[in-house]
Structures are given as structure tokens and as C-alpha cells.
Design brief:
alpha/beta, Rossmann fold, 7 helices, binds zinc ion
Length: 169
């Protein structure tokens, strides 16, 4: 099957690329990391769910990946890996705009919902809620996200990684 450019950009990654999967989620992209070491499971899921197959250590024959969108990466520097994948699909500028930041749970890949104040108050310590501003929550794993110092640092890292100046030529 040939996918059009309009197909949503979703990813499936080999097990060793868990950290990259988390960083893609941070950018807002639907990204699953195969926990199963069965290559066929990975390939089937990529096909069934129209996901871009991202791989590094695993090798695939032409036949295996026929018709799939794929992205082979190398190295293990987290920022470089994130840049390489996004650049390969011309998604750097979209990601750089920051619109997708903290819209998806980095742990479980579910979309985040903006929590009503009373729900946020149940989930967070009251002192934290007072300073938190918007609080978003994961529907599946119930992790909560707000612009804590941790996420502010992550956002700074993210913007630095995706900025033009840090981009490799
Ligand atoms: Zn979650």
C-alpha cells in the first residue's frame, strides 16, 4: 500500500529505541515502542496501523519492508535521533512550533486531556495546584502533567534540539 503525504505521521520503533519513542511523544507524535522482540509482530503492526517503522539495530530485507514507510537511524545521541527522524519526514518545523509539546503521555502514548480544576486538585498536592496553571492528565495511566520545573527544562532541551542553530548540516 502506498501512503499519501496526508497520512498522519505515526511511528513504531524497535525495542532499543524506547527513549526516542518517548521523545517523539513529547513532540506530540503517536509513537509506540515494540516491547516484543518478534520482528513479525513489529512489521504487522506497522502495516496494520500505517506506522512509520523506525529501526537502528535490526535489519530488514527489502521484501519485509515493502510498502512500509521506514526510517533507519544511527547513533544514540537522543537529540540527534529525534532531529533525524523528524527531518526525514519534514516534521521539524511542526515540532519546533511546540504545539505538540505535552499533548501526549510520554509513558503510555495516550493523548492528554486538560483537567478541570477540581480534578486537578484531587490529583496534585494543593500547593502544587496553586502554582501549576494548566494541568493535563493521561486518561490511560492517570499521570498528570503541568509546567513544572522539570517540564520547563525538557521544553528548553526540546527547543534547543530542534532549533536551526543546533541542527547538523
Ligand atoms: Zn499515560
Amino acid at each position: 500500500m502506498v501512503l499519501t503525504q496526508a497520512a498522519p505521521l505515526r511511528f513504531i520503533l524497535e525495542p532499543s529505541l524506547e527513549r526516542l519513542a518517548r521523545n517523539l511523544r513529547l513532540a506530540g507524535f503517536d509513537s509506540v515502542c515494540a516491547l516484543d522482540s518478534d520482528r513479525q509482530v513489529l512489521l504487522d503492526r506497522a502495516r496494520d496501523e500505517f506506522r512509520v517503522l523506525v529501526f537502528r539495530d535490526w535489519e530488514f530485507s527489502k521484501e519485509e519492508i515493502s510498502g512500509l514507510r521506514t526510517c533507519q537511524v544511527s547513533g544514540d545521541e537522543p537529540g540527534q535521533l529525534l532531529r533525524d527522524v523528524l527531518a526525514a519526514f519534514e516534521a521539524l518545523s511542526t515540532a519546533r512550533s511546540g504545539g505538540g509539546f505535552l499533548t501526549r503521555c510520554v509513558d503510555c502514548n495516550s493523548e492528554l486531556l486538560l483537567l478541570p480544576r477540581d480534578v486537578a486538585e484531587q490529583r496534585l498536592p494543593s500547593a502544587t495546584v496553586a502554582e501549576a496553571g494548566e494541568v493535563r492528565g493521561c486518561r490511560r495511566c492517570e499521570r498528570s502533567y503541568w509546567e513544572s520545573p522539570y517540564w520547563q527544562r525538557m521544553r528548553a532541551w526540546f527547543q534547543d534540539v530542534l532549533s536551526d542553530s543546533s541542527r547538523d548540516s
